[in-house]
Design goal:
globular, alpha/beta, about 300 residues, eight-stranded mixed sheet
Length: about 300
């Protein structure tokens, strides 16, 4: 990759809510998602906005309790709902994401990511089935990374996830020599490294307030505990929307490369032959190939022309 001066890019949201059962992770996620959609489609009818939000529900379909009802002064409309009830493998999550994208949702809520870790088909369960040794982690990591890539790298929609948490305790001696139970902190029911992948991580408390334990954008960390509202999602959207739209730029570059390829094929019979070969292998025309495929074909055609010229 060529060295260049940094320029701000438009990003897709990667936000996490983690907390105990009953701490309003789902409700907070819905309000936050609504704020993102308000920013994306300010003139859209309210009912239609909810159709841009989808939930992958692993929590016994409980997100449906919020649908088409008012809660704490906010009306939750009819969002897209995708329940997962048995197979909690990362592959199953990825399939759910793809199906939600097919109905044109713009924000996907995964409620929750914890099931992909320690429930049937999850990473921890899979590792134990293979033997539970340290070496077995290498066999299950690719499955885990497939889901991580879908959220953090191939994220052409905004993602909000939730995680269950557990409280760690320990017996510690006091100055008087007595022993007391001490809270060590909240741990997510997920891979400890996953939290680092998010741009914002909220901890949800039993009073339904949140606080930002990680905030790359600097939007929430100074606020202490607060209730999530749609305005919080809108604030994040307005911040990450600034900068260059790299997907739009890549599409412009792809179209320019396709035009160059057609011109090269018209000028050189050997280049045209090479183009025909790779279109046949890809089973599609160069016009329908993605950027990486088009770039590959361009290089193959240029190499073929160069080799022909060196033989003359």
């Amino acid at each position: 990759m060529a060295l260049s001066r940094a320029k701000r890019e438009k990003l897709k949201a990667a936000v996490n809510f983690m907390g105990a059962s009953g701490s309003a992770k789902t409700f907070s996620s819905l309000l936050f998602a609504k704020g993102i959609i308000d920013g994306m489609f300010p003139d859209m009818e309210e009912a239609d906005k909810w159709g841009k939000i989808g939930i992958i529900d692993t929590e016994h379909r409980r997100s449906l309790l919020y649908a088409e009802r008012e809660k704490e002064g906010y009306y939750i409309g009819s969002f897209w709902h995708y329940p997962i009830e048995k197979d909690f493998s990362p592959k199953r999550y990825v399939q759910a994401i793809k199906e939600l994208k097919e109905v044109n949702v713009e924000v996907i809520i995964i409620d929750s990511m914890s099931h992909a870790w320690n429930r049937e088909g999850g990473i921890l369960t899979k590792q134990q089935e293979l033997g539970g040794t340290f070496q077995d982690w290498a066999k299950v990591r690719p499955y885990e990374w497939e889901l991580w890539q879908e959220i953090f790298e191939r994220n052409d929609v905004h993602f909000i996830t939730t995680m269950r948490t557990k409280q760690d305790y320990a017996m510690t001696p006091t100055e008087s020599g007595k022993w007391e139970v001490q809270k060590l902190g909240i741990k997510s029911v997920q891979n400890d490294q996953l939290e680092y992948e998010y741009m914002v991580n909220f901890r949800t408390e039993m009073n339904h307030k949140v606080w930002a334990s990680k905030d790359n954008l600097g939007l929430y960390e100074h606020r202490g505990q607060f209730y999530i509202t749609p305005e919080d999602g809108l604030a994040l959207y307005n911040d990450i929307e600034q900068g260059i739209d790299m997907r739009e730029k890549m599409e412009e570059d792809r179209k320019a490369l396709v035009q160059f390829i057609h011109t090269l094929a018209e000028d050189s019979p050997i280049a045209k032959k090479e183009l025909t070969l790779w279109e046949k292998k890809a089973k599609t025309s160069v016009d329908k190939m993605n950027y990486d495929q088009v770039r590959f074909v361009q290089r193959k055609m240029e190499d073929a022309v160069s080799n022909e010229e060196s033989l003359e």
